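Appendix B, Record 12. Input sequence as logged:
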Amino acid sequence: MTQSKLLPYRLPLSIFVFFIAYMALTHTPLGYISSLTSQLIGYLYSAFDVVKETEQVTLIYALLAGVVGHFWFSKLCKIDVKANQKTLLKGLGALVLIILAYGYNLVQQA
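Logged structural output:
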């Protein structure tokens, strides 16, 4: 299988997806997703400041969209399936580490 000519544009397109997702989550009614998630976390964890932390939840959702976009663009570029799955797992692993560090920071602030 030959790789696509779009391969050099994979990372810039993923970054573009991140910014589009962030814009959509902050300037459209999709922002309710972040707000509802923040309210749910605030309900489960009382030290969570819902109003102040909604921005961080929005960033996490935008990062998730960037990781999924990178995986999807890799499929379009006809990257080897196993290598593409490794890339997805690395991206999701990095996102999980970011979420864990964020949670640890919240616990330390309380």
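The CA atoms of residues 38 and 52 lie 9 Å apart.
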